[in-house]
Amino acid sequence: MAIHGKTAAEIFDCVRTLAQSQQLRSGDSLPPVRDLAVQLGISRNTVAAAYRRLVVAGIATTHGRLGTIIRNQYESSDQEGAQADSPLTDLASGNPNAKWLPDVAAALQRKPYTPRLYGEPTVNAGLQHYIQRWMQPDCPKSFEIDLTHGAVDAIERLLGAYLVAGDKVAVENPCFLSSLHSLGALGLQATGVAVDDDGMQVSALDEALRKGARAVLLTPRAHNPTGCSLSKKRAQELSRVLAQYPNVLVIVDDHFALLSTATYYSVIPESSTRWALVRSFSKALGPDMRVAAVASDKATSKELRLRLASGTSWVSHLLQDVVEAIVTDPSTSEVIERAKHDYRQRRQSLEHALGKQGIAFQKDSDGLNLWLPLQGDDQAVALALARRGWLVRHGSSLAVDDSVNGLRITIADISPEQCEQLAQDIRGSLG
What we know:
By secondary structure, this protein is of the alpha/beta class. Helices cover 40% and strands 15% of the residues. The protein is built from 15 helices and 15 strands. It has helices spanning 8-20, 33-40, 44-56, 104-110, 125-135, 151-162, 177-186, 202-210, 232-243, 282-285, 298-306, 317-327, 330-356, 378-387, 416-430; strands at 60-62, 68-70, 89-90, 144-148, 168-173, 189-196, 199-200, 215-218, 249-253, 275-280, 292-296, 369-373, 390-391, 393-394, 406-410. The strands form four sheets. An eight-stranded mixed sheet has the order 4-11-10-9-8-5-6-7, with helices on both faces. Strands 12-15-14 form a three-stranded antiparallel sheet, covered by helices on one side. Helix 2 packs across helix 3, helix 13 runs parallel beside helix 15 (416-430) and helix 14 (378-387) crosses helix 15 (416-430).
């Protein structure tokens, strides 16, 4: 078996064929760039370009000094959600507390289902009216409303509308796991932008844009995994940076909008020609409610509708009926307030327990998770906690460019008694 070719395209095609025919197997290392360049009698830049294309296509992965390695394209990667077969106490799922999810059967009684046919409007009039009022204070003056099958679906379709494989997308580092999967599936390059207590850092975003990022995906509040939210000042500073790049696609993933205790501050500048604000119903109404509202400029809405064409992939009107019945029910606001209070109490219980053990955590956070920044090997700490009966998510699986060490702990179901024991076990696992 030998790799051949004189151009980057020829080398790419050769390696792809070898991988597809199993002559190159998962875990096999490709020759170092310098060695292959000498072997083929071509420049290093040509080989490097071929390797970059293999990575973008998902055929290979880069591992620093370990080189470029053939990827198992069928290997399942980390996913959000509960692990039903795990004997551990699951604090890694990212799930909401089921007791705060609405009664779907009751919602359908309030708004009985009416069959719809091909060619009818893709968005229920009543739900569109609700979303219009919900979005209006936080969007530029003129915008359109669309629905997608959840926030992740919205992000994939928006990125696919404007970007091509190999394009760079600026995202928070650490990043929401599903966002990383979406970028990988589209062949896009995630460019990590560091975050702090006030959200995405301004200088880091500016650097990513100067280096050619064609889109920015950011979380305005309840960032997953750290829980940080944009301050008013930070949002204004980010907006000024984005105003210098009016043709960059700006996607704001406000996934926790219905349950957030933080104020929403917009980063979308008036000069932006491509923008979208995405708000999911999943955290408040349940992950099975695959509905997200998307407000965007008119051109972006047209692109999105091409991918949600009537007759092929509109969001089910049955789901829309349920969502509309729930969010327009006056009693829903009370339930949401109680859920906010419950999540806040659980978070504070864990924060108090961690504080007693002298363990640092992300303060003033929001969302369903609590973030513990670590200095050492977070995988080792997560493994030690697993031996003590706890399943948590370590930051290495959420990192983009630079490594991020920490633990993400889902607080939605945790009890005060569990908080005390978990904090003690974390202290014991830190060594």
